[in-house]
Amino acid sequence: MATDVEVMQHGTVEINGCCKKGPGYASPLEAMAGPKESLIYVTCIYTGTGRGKPDYLATVDVDPNSPSYSKVIHRLSMPYEGDELHHSGWNSCSSCYRDPSAARRYLVLPSLISGRIYAIDTQKDPRAPSLYKVVQPDDVIQKTGLAFPHTAHCLASGEILVSCLGDKDGNAEGSGFLLLDSDFNVKGRWEKPGHSPLFGYDFWYQPRHNTMISSSWGAPSAFTKGFNLQHVTDGLYGRHLHVYTWPGGELKQTLDLGNTGLLPLEVRFLHNPSEAIGYVGCALTSNMVRFFKNPDGSWGHEIAIAVKPVKVQNWILPEMPGLITDFLISLDDRFLYLANWLHGDIRQYNIKDPSNPKLTGQVFVGGVFQKGNSVLAEAEDGSTYQVDVPEVQGHRLRGGPQMIQLSLDGKRLYATNSLFSTWDRQFYPELLEEGGHILQIDVDTEKGGLAINPRFFVDFGAEPDGPSLAHEMRYPGGDCTSDIWI
Known about the structure:
Residues 1-19 have low confidence and may be disordered. 7% of the residues lie in helices and 38% in strands. The protein has 6 helices and 35 strands. β19 and β20 form a beta hairpin. The protein has a single domain, classed as CATH 2.130.10.10. By secondary structure, it is mainly β.
């Protein structure tokens, strides 16, 4: 029996004989045994749709035994229009597990366009969250020069770190990391002066290796106008990973992923905090790049998964990339799941050998060349085809899979279909007219495999204020894309 720390059931820690518990779980494997999800919080967007309504946070009932299963049961509208809610994070997670004074109470909602950051109280009533505080963009810009906030992660200190993609004018040179205190007051920049990234987007830290790695989308002045391939040629989109000392904030290495690593977006380490391995999804070239620590302490990278482009007819280019816009790793580090937003499929890979992922499951849930669309895919023999995508509860599936979220036990995968309102309008204009949706995918964790759950469909085309776009999803108790272990 451990004398100092013993991990108990449901995340309680016994420290020097006294049971104490912070938020989250003692380990990723313990999290897998946590309670089954019953609610999901979803960022929903009216910005860019022309409906003149503020974005909102939806609460969705995902308890199959509930009479309101797969329904929106609450909507918290933001007090302003034009935000473009996007990603979300927590004020506290498993990184604060051994701090009994910490609580996973506030969902942090950075607004990609307006620059506001909302703190949402989920503790008073988890089914009906309420607004706690608004961090105004003028305060952030005045104190840090940062704008276009994206990813929020909690720190073990109780502070909150937010990646920002540029300055107020949309220049990538102004990107960096915003540090908020535990009550959402602006403290300043996290990185050392002169150590800002080339571009901003996502980040993940692995404290046992004293490392944080961030990724690169592009200059807000470019991506907010829609995707233009010329902007890639002009150097307005990223292809780098930035390796920082943690928690020191010194940029110690920049990994150039080259022309096979264009638009590296979501970045995740393996959940085991002892592992010095992670992945980043490179959207435009549709490669999953594995990064790893070398024996000399430097970091290297290699392509681990390559999604081949598809030759197409009646599209803007002769070849279509998969466009990997999101991926995640199961809490036991056994499986990696990715979403190809343009091709329309979700894939499951066994990553028991992290350097040699094996495809074990695939399901099409939309895409540009699904049956009923004008775009045709070309096979190697020159024949054309379209993918047969099933209807769910009488609904034709719109767009392609974008953000994904996995249940703690790894058996249910949820998928939304909106990327960013401007890009939605460009690639899937029907989303702005018909709205987004959430699907649930049943996961076979024994033999591998993915299948659409026909009982679950959340239709954001039927919202009271008109069709909205659905993006990031979070469980009240944390998940595999929010929680980091130290």
